[in-house]
Amino acid sequence: MFEGAHTALVTPFRNDRFDEAAFELLIESQVKNNISGIVPVGTTGESPTLTHEEHARVIELAVQSAKGRCKVIAGTGSNSTAEAISLTVDAEKAGADAALLVVPYYNKPTQEGLFQHYRAIAQATKLPLILYSIPGRAGIEVAVPTVARLAEACPNIVAIKEAGGSVDRVSQLRQALPESFEILSGDDALTLPFMSVGAVGVISVASNIIPGEVSELVRTALEGDYARARTLHEQWYPLFRDLFIEANPGPIKAALAWQGSISPEVRLPLSGLTPQNAETLRATLTRLALLAYE
């Protein structure tokens, strides 16, 4: 269902307003470069700083722009179960193909609380749901036994975006879950090692700027051509690394802005790249022929 490369889309702003025209062009570029899916209003989409009205509009426009040519996986997670249910139901009404649900952050529920949280959302929608475990931002992870319990109890919880940074955890998940339950990398730099032990793709930041190349890396790994996939990983690893030189999505927005695709604007409390980090990232993009030499 979710094999392939899916782009965690930025939300472009211009003068602090959602730049719909830039967003539509970004999606068109994704589709033309064979991306499997797009993920509006995730972490990369700055969901914490969007109003509810903006959140709904970003998903609505993503569905309209994709026109069924790729999957639309709406970010609808929250640390409030009621809010996550509301956002997920709205995404279903808007025509999204699936929803991505980040682990509740800040309030640090127990594993039983996580189970009850996700089960309540699953019971409120018919959408396929993707769990999103990212302990570096949320403070907790969905434990492997909890993922297995959810997979058994909730037929529409069908995948997990794994951003815990551990290949061993991917192996644990693969051992504990039915083969039909899919694992997606949540970190570009770990896509290849995760796929080597059972992941089937990635929800990518880098594919905002290199959708075709990330798609090729995932496709070659799925085909079992790990020699070619490793070559691609090594080629693009400097970009994977430097797109996290500061908090996401600041670096990827700067990169897209240097290409002329969007404004680099992020919303506070995020801020623009420091001059030193901007110089480092720009040099990497230039070496990779993603920017014209100056």
Written overview of the protein:
- It is a single chain.
- The protein has 294 residues and is α/β, with parallel strands linked by helices.
- It has one domain (4-225): TIM Barrel, CATH 3.20.20.70.
- It is built from twelve helices and ten strands.
- The chain has helices at 20-32, 52-66, 81-94, 111-123, 135-138, 144-153, 167-176, 191-196, 211-222, 226-242, 250-258, 275-287, and strands at 4-8, 13-14, 17-18, 37-39, 71-75, 98-102, 129-133, 157-162, 182-185, 201-204.
- An eight-stranded parallel β-sheet has the order 9-8-7-6-5-4-1-10.
- Strand 2 and strand 3 form a beta hairpin.
- The longest helix is centred in the C-terminal third of the chain and has 17 residues, at 226-242.
- The chain is globular.
- The N and C termini lie far apart (43 Å).
- The model has no long low-confidence stretch (mean pLDDT 97).
Please describe the topology of this protein.
Blueprint: E1 4-8, E2 13-14, E3 17-18, H1 20-32, E4 37-39, H2 52-66, E5 71-75, H3 81-94, E6 98-102, H4 111-123, E7 129-133, H5 135-138, H6 144-153, E8 157-162, H7 167-176, E9 182-185, H8 191-196, E10 201-204, H9 211-222, H10 226-242, H11 250-258, H12 275-287
Parallel strand pairs: 1-4, 1-10, 4-5, 5-6, 6-7, 7-8, 8-9
Antiparallel strand pairs: 2-3
Helix pairs in contact: 1-2, 2-3, 3-4, 4-6, 6-7, 9-10, 11-12
